[in-house]
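Translate sequence into structure tokens.
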Amino acid sequence: MACQKPFCFLLCFLFVVCLSACSTGQTGFKTRPDNFNLIIQNVTAIDAIHGARMPVDVAIAGNRIALIRPAVSSGELPSQNYVDGTGKFLIPGLWDAHVHLTYNPKIGHDVFFPLALAHGITSLRDTGGQLDKLAPAKAIADSDAIAPDLYISGPLVDGRKRVYAGQSRGFPNISIGADNAEIAEAKVDALAAQGVDFIKAYEMLSPEAFRQLVARARFHNLPVTGHSPLAMTAQQAIEAGIKDMQHLRNLELDCVGNRLQLLQERQSVMAEDNSEFGGKLRAALHRMQRAKAVAAQDEGECAALIELMKKNNVSQTPTLSISRFLSRKLYAEKRYQASFRLMPKSVAKGWFKRASKLSKREPTQQDLAFDNWLMTMVARLNNAGVSILAGTDAPIAFLTPGASLHEELFMLVEAGLTPLQAIEAATFAPAAFFDLQDQQGSIAVAQKADLVLLNADPLLDIRNIALIEAVVKDGRLIDRTALDVYRSAPSQIK
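Result follows.
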């Protein structure tokens, strides 16, 4: 029987759509082309899952990617809401997986959010802050406003002698204390009830409190990140169930043959200490053991620790931009200091003054040895298949929101990651920490339409990550003109 024309047309249309989707490894396309609110045409798409695909058309419906297909001529696409991607490169929206929005009251979300978007950052993971002060930022992020997604831990959960207890400007009150396992459980219950996305554990927790914290967080389906407590070995923290570790902190104390002896020494000092300020005690323990441990690294012990991280699917957020503070001295570079001008004037003035003073300090041999250990360890973790997350610790230590994430990616490549692996660290890996890899972090059908359009290939030079033409947030295009406004006037987002 002869086919009716409308029916045949429908079959042909569905066949073309299916063929286009399947040819790029995508399925499940259910949106008609005239429903696309944005199409990026003839662009090279780059992500950690698919590598580089070129050239393709990427169509967005609502806040999701609806179609990816081999590029066709512009005449076959709707003329409205179309971006010419010829010669350009599309990557997933970036994450800064370690920030503190309430660390400095002068650098809040009204500064962070626009600068993040101006630098291609569409998601932020706040790893420690008081919930009442985070609430306005979270409300904006959860609204229809054009703003980065925000994932929060609330306050750090520390031991009785808290490090960040408000004793000074450098140690604001962004933590809560848990003296024992029972209190740790209660603190996690309270944070879960207040809607946090994960739990951040800190260095002064007792082993019993830490283990109960992790167990209770698991009960609430909340991943735990943090510093390995000084009263434990890193191996013990991993075995207890921590999912992500920050700054490579205290791993050096496990990569030695006498790690249990070092642990006993720390535990003894902690038991005898009579001070109430955890910051001084922590610093004293680091001074007592870090340099010696770095000088006595045992390859076998370190390999075993790395293998344990891999086996237990524990990621690492190195935050090289702050971990290398004394040795790399990023803040001393005129090129980077230009980003200080993006800060509120009073902040910028103070940063320039203090950076100038600190720039005169020469790194010690211990500083340089620790720097070498950091870079070597990142390479070893990456080569072993341990997931690396890109985070900065902004705005601590002159780390300008947005700009510092680019510097972090540069340093990850310097440490041995490929540019594609560095992109993965700032896209897919943070999404996977929250088990969101099926929703964001790559360029695929049904993924969230958080994207960055670049003017040069980041796989040839990771520094091209800074050459941003446009950002797409929740399917909405932020062009270069709007990004320049965000960059120059952060108060555009309230």
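Note: The chain has 18 helices and 19 strands.
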